[in-house]
Amino acid sequence: MLTRSLKIGIVCPYSWDTPGGVQNHIRDLAEFLISAGHDVSVLAPAIDEAKLPDYVVNAGKPISIPYNGAVARVLFGPVAFARVRQWISQGDFDLLHLHEPAIPSISLLACWAADGPMVGTFHAAAKRQKIIFAIGPILEPAIEKLSARIAVSEAARLTLTDHLDTDAIIIPNGIYAKRYAHGKLQEKWSGNTIGFIGRFEEPRKGLSVLVDTLPVISRFAPDVKVFVAGPGDPEEVIKSIDPQLRHRFEFLGRISEEDKADFMSSVALYVAPNTGGESFGIILAEALAGGACVVASDIPAFDDLLGHGEFGALFASENPTDLAKVVIDLLRDESKRKKLADRGKIHAQLFDWTVVAEQIYSVYEMSIVGSEKVRLASDTRPWNRFLNKEEKP
Amino acid sequence: MSQWLLVIIIVLIGAWYLSFTATRLDRLHHRVETSWANLDVLLQKRAAVALEIAHSDIADPASSVLLTAAAYQARDADIQNRSQAESGLSGALGLLLEDSEHLETAADSALLTELSALTDKVRVAIAIHTDAVARTQMVRRKFIVRLFRLAGTAPLPITYEFEADVL
């Protein structure tokens, strides 16, 4: 994959300290590129500078703004703009990779400030918003500077074409498939069990849909157990569960990557009842790689990732009755579960970093032409060239 | 007095906007050229690999003739006929690959792996190029661009009709 060592600058719009899909993606990509021999610098906002890995450059403290149904911790403003410009002019990059350049963040600032080979990755999937018609004309000339656009899923691509009238290449998010391939079967999680991983307090993760299904499922499978892993306070959720069924739920808290691999190979079913706001579904890719039989809501991102039901079962989103039907059907039929899981595990190899990074790298190659480097856009404007000449004696 | 100031401000903003649009258009033309250069190189490589396949044991004599003809046509086509010739090559390759699941030697399958890697890249390059072309055409249709002839003497980029599904 390595033809020559590149100097790559990656811009992360969200705070590096807060966990999130985009941050994880950038971390894994940066580490993969570094291990392949490239020189990578990541510019990201951060709260605690001491905890940053050495390839991350702090852009300043993020502020919280509401965005796409959640709170996004981003950074912009004149001070941030100056930092971004400084990072670009000192970095001497062959290429910039901007993540989520269409939201107000340092990614957009970098897109505005730089000139030269640039690649943008669009992660978000959102419904069509009117607001974009107001800010579109401002965004378009900036987004247009990207030599190539990548969307992480069909849903993200549609969001982009809807809002900004531009197309993108689809390259999925990456996982380290090998990490999940050899999970051990844990007695405590096996049997008639259902697994769930995620920040269950957020309504869009859909744990309440699963909770609503349980009275029906437990009638058909009396020994069913639900394991919920992920950060958060289970108090509220437990209150919402029927007291007779509370002992069927077990909250594990945040689990490690090794435990995750074991978890995926142990549970009978992995359920992802997300109600929306999901653009890729990295957890499903991990579940498939871990050999789990997956049941997911039919939101566009999941439908796409699971090959319209070929690699995992789908149910009508936010419909507990349909979920119960699918779950009961699968709990009763072990061979069907096995078939789905086996197909899924093979499919998950497509999301392995070795495949995904290769695809991203070939987009890099096509964006870099000759030995042209990333410069500040202002340096190439005629009047600035004139001014700079005046300053130098 | 203040009227003059207003006029000056408007003229300055107008001048800035014209310069901004000209820079934008220049960048777009540059993108069209570079993305086409990329695509062109990849297509040339693909034609070369197709010729190698035609001369290897993968192809039977009949498909070998077909493939060689298509590859040469794609190589020699001028810019107007290029996309048609490339689609012809895609078709010829598609026909051959349909029933070549069973391969004897490692060298043959190496050729096919190279071809499929190239095909993936070509697909990406086409997407990048058509997007650049579409954007440039869009900006050039703007009234202000035509009025002030901001595009200069650069030729209007041509849309290439690549049949992405064949590739």
Quick rundown:
With 393 residues, chain A is an alpha/beta fold. Chain A is 42% helix and 18% strand.
Fold blueprint:
The complex is a heterodimer of chains A (393) and B (167).
Chain A: E1 7-11, H1 21-35, E2 39-44, E3 56-58, E4 63-67, E5 70-74, H2 78-91, E6 95-99, H3 106-113, E7 114-115, E8 118-122, H4 132-143, E9 148-151, H5 154-164, E10 169-170, H6 177-181, E11 193-197, H7 207-220, E12 225-229, H8 235-240, E13 249-253, H9 257-266, E14 269-272, H10 282-289, E15 294-297, H11 300-305, E16 313-315, H12 320-332, H13 334-348, H14 353-367, E17 375-376, H15 377-380, H16 382-391
Chain B: H1 2-55, H2 61-76, H3 82-98, H4 106-140, H5 143-147
Helix pairs in contact in B: 1-2, 1-4, 2-3
Could you explain the architecture of this structure?
- The complex is a heterodimer of chains A (393) and B (167).
- Helix content of chain A is 42%, strand content 18%.
- Chain A is an alpha/beta fold and 393 residues long.
- Chain A folds into two domains: 7-174 and 352-391, Glycogen Phosphorylase B (Rossmann fold), CATH 3.40.50.2000; 177-350, Glycogen Phosphorylase B (Rossmann fold, 3-Layer(aba) Sandwich).
- In chain A, the strands form four sheets. A seven-stranded parallel β-sheet of chain A has the order 3-2-1-6-8-9-10, with helices on both faces. In chain A, strands 13-12-11-14-15-16 form a six-stranded parallel β-sheet, sandwiched between helices.
- In chain A, helix 2 packs across helix 3 (106-113), helix 7 (207-220) crosses helix 12 (320-332) and helix 10 packs across helix 13.
- The mean pLDDT of chain A is 88.
- Chain B is mainly α.
- Chain B has one domain: de novo design (two linked rop proteins) (Up-down Bundle), CATH 1.20.1440.
- Chain B contains five helices and no strands.
- Chain B has helices at residues 2-55, 61-76, 82-98, 106-140, 143-147.
- The mean pLDDT of chain B is 82.
- Chains A and B meet through helix 14 of A and helix 1 and helix 4 of B.
